[in-house]
Design goal:
Elements: E1 7-11, H1 18-26, E2 30-34, H2 36-45
Parallel strand pairs: 1-2
C-alpha cells in the first residue's frame, strides 16, 4: 500500500482469519488471499510440485464403423 499497489496476493500454508478476509474486502485494492487448500488445488491444476501417478484413456464406440455402407 505504501507503493500505491492496486492489487496483490497473500499466500499461506495455513488459513486466513475471518478478520483478514473482512479487512481485504474493505480495501479499495484487489487483494487475493490463497490458503493452503487453494494453494494445493492450484499446484495440482498447474502440475507444480508433483508428478502424475496415472493416466486414464476413455474410449467411445464409433457406431458408424460397424454400419453397412
Amino acid at each position: 500500500m505504501g507503493k500505491k499497489a492496486r492489487k496483490g496476493i497473500f499466500i499461506t500454508t495455513s488459513t486466513f482469519s475471518r478478520v483478514a478476509h473482512l479487512y481485504v474486502e474493505a480495501l479499495d485494492s484487489k487483494i487475493v488471499l490463497i490458503n493452503s487448500r487453494r494453494l494445493a488445488e492450484l499446484m495440482i491444476d498447474h502440475n507444480v510440485g508433483g508428478n502424475p501417478v496415472a493416466n486414464y484413456e476413455v474410449k467411445k464406440i464409433d457406431t458408424d464403423y460397424l454400419t453397412d455402407s
